[in-house]
Amino acid sequence: MASSSISPKNGVSPAEWDARVNLAAAYRLTALFGWDDLVFTHISARVPGPEHHFLINPYGMMFDEITASSLVKIDLDGRKVTESPYDINPAGFTIHSAVHAAREDAHCVMHTHSVNGVAVSAQEAGLLPLSQQSLGVLASLGYHDYEGIALNEAEKPRLVRDLGNNTNLMLRNHGLLTVGATPADAFVAMYFFEVACMIQVRAQAGGGKLTPIGQPILDGIKQQIGLVTRGVSPGALVWPGLLRRLDRRNPGYAD
C-alpha cells in the first residue's frame, strides 16, 4: 500500500481532503457490501476547486485497502497531476471522464459489475417495477448498449446521450452506473439500484407470476421520496451511519 505522502499537512486543501476521505469510504463500503469486482471497477470524484481534477482508485489496490492518501489525482484526460506510485485503469476513466465532462452536477460517478446488476443488465426488459426499491431508480434511469471494453473515445457521446439527466444508467451486459453531487449520494443511489436488481433476480427465480407496480404509482414516486426524506438527499441522511459502520468493521480509510 502507498505511504501516506498526501495529507492536509502537506498542501492538500481541507476541501480536497474531505473529498478524499469520503471517496475512500465509498470504496471500502462497496467492498463491504460485496459489489466490488476485484480491482476492475471505479468510483471517481471531482476535486473541489477551479481545476477539472478528479480522484480515482489506484489500479491494483483492492477496494477494502483504499485510503484517502492513496487515491490518484488526474485530469480529464486521465493524466496524473500529482505524484503517485500507482497507475489508473484507462478503461475505467473513459466512462467516468465522459460523464464528468458532460454533467457539472455529477461530482461523483460510481460504476459496478455486481452479479445482480449484470444479470439484470443482460435481460431485454431491463429493470422491472417489481419492488418499492425499484421505483426511485426507474424514475431516473437510462440504458446504454454494450460496445465492448470501454476504451473507445468514440463511445463517449453515446454514453452521455443515454445517461441524459438521469441519476442511474444501466450498461447493457456490463453493469450499473450512478452519479451524485457527493460520494454519499452516488453510493446510496447505487444501493437502491443494486437492491432493486437483487430483488428482481430473486423474484424471477421463484418461478411464480410476477405482479408489477402500476404506472400511476411510479409517476408519483419522486414526490413521495421527498416527503420520506424531508427534503434531505438520501445520501446525506444515510452517510453518517454508513461511516460509523465502516469505522467498526474496516477503519483506516481516512489515513
Automatic annotation (TrEMBL):
Q: Which InterPro entries match?
A: Aldolase-II_Adducin_sf, Aldolase_II/adducin_N, Aldolase_II/adducin_N_sf
Give the species this sequence originates from.
Answer: Paraburkholderia ginsengiterrae
Q: Which family does it belong to?
A: Belongs to the aldolase class II family.
In Swiss-Prot or TrEMBL terms, this protein is called Class II aldolase
Where would one find the signal peptide in this protein? Answer: none
List, alphabetically, the SUPFAM superfamilies matched.
AraD/HMP-PK domain-like
* Example of a GO cellular component annotation carried by this entry: cytoskeleton
Q: Which residues cross the membrane?
A: none
Domain named Class II aldolase/adducin N-terminal: residues: 21-201
Show the GO MF annotations: actin filament binding
